């Protein structure tokens, strides 16, 4: 019997998800033994036309990481959807929009100007800018079109399962691969992680005071955090209460608060709004002046509340730009 | 189109105070514009910020939140929570490019039917001046 075919593709991502696959270490050998990889641009040399030539649904599962922000990415993910029985959004960017999704507070023009004109390190005296089509003697050169708005994978194609995280931890990746290969499939739309919030399994939960109240909000870069105590109780913003668990508390164990890469739990639509609500409730302020004084200490609310989930939040992007 | 713009306002009101004030305004036969769609909550503190975002995203021209005066909350502290949440939400709205005047929080007790009618009058006037919510999709 032929081995099941698997594709791995990257869209707007940093390569960390590919790294996470490699981090399976010797387990990757077990995976490679049981499957036939048909596309993995970062590691293996396959051409898009090989995929185009395959019959529909001939790939068992495509693991796609990164958010979708240009025409090539959109084209390939649509192609992979057509050729695959299952599509897994792999990692926070494909799942929620991810860090590239924060570009949704700007638009294509602003990003272009910053990247090619305005930064101090840009030296471009001849004004050479990328074009969609460039004519050269040998023919036409083309570049993918860059979009105004960053999208998650499921805002572009139908997605069957989600492997959350930035990047997903190796144990969840193995669990995901084994589940899909076993043929014993979970319900469509399942996020392969815990159903509870990070605080449920956080090792610092036991240090949490009965009544949590904070008088000031500190940035992790400005203080030396106690390695045992609940970050929120210390006034350091930690998105754990509004974030799905299952990550293995990697950040917490490195004495860094949660930034929310696993996204909201199943019941929650908007991770940032939910966290805003939770944070507001522990602020110890009764008068308008006190409230203003403490809430003004929150630097960059969008970046804090929606670090990974802006494209899949209710508002999805900054309006009017 | 803009000449006969009638704003649509979603009102989230606490049943113990503002919602009762709306009832009082009604039985007192006070006049106020019919642009507000009232939604009764047990407490303004039970209002999820995501409801406000959703209302705006789906085209509400304004969102009104009515709760009890400080010290009057039936559940002791619900309105204090609302106050803090709205303070952060207003900052978020501003950064997301939404005019924060479209979301208004007021404390109106069950005895203040007249204040309710006056507040809604003012809010409808203000939203009419601001014009339609740019997020509204053409029907």
Walkthrough of the structure:
The complex is a heterodimer of chains A (321) and B (139). Chain A has a five-stranded parallel sheet with strand order 2-1-3-5-9, with helices on both faces. Chain A is of the alpha/beta class and 321 residues long. The model of chain A has no long low-confidence stretch (mean pLDDT 94). Chain B is of the alpha/beta class. Chain B is built from four helices and four strands, in the order E-H-E-H-E-H-E-H. Chain B is globular, with a radius of gyration of 15 Å. The two termini of chain B are 13 Å apart. Chains A and B meet through helix 9, helix 10 and helix 11 of A and helix 2 and helix 3 of B.
| Average residue pLDDT of chain B | 94
Q: Per DSSP, what share of the residues of chain B sits in E-state strands of 2 or more residues?
A: 15-25%
Largest sheet of chain B: 4 strands, parallel
Number of helices of chain B: 4
Radius of gyration of chain B: 15 Å
Q: Into which percent range does the helicity of residues of chain A fall?
A: 25-40%
Question: What is the C-alpha radius of gyration of chain A, as a whole number of Å?
Answer: 22 Å
What's the mean pLDDT score of chain A? 94
Mass-distribution shape of chain A: globular
> What structural class results from the helix and strand content of chain A?
alpha/beta
User: What is the total tally of β strands of chain B?
Assistant: 4
How many angstroms does the end-to-end distance of chain A come to?
Answer: 54 Å
In helices, the fraction of residues of chain B equals 25-40%
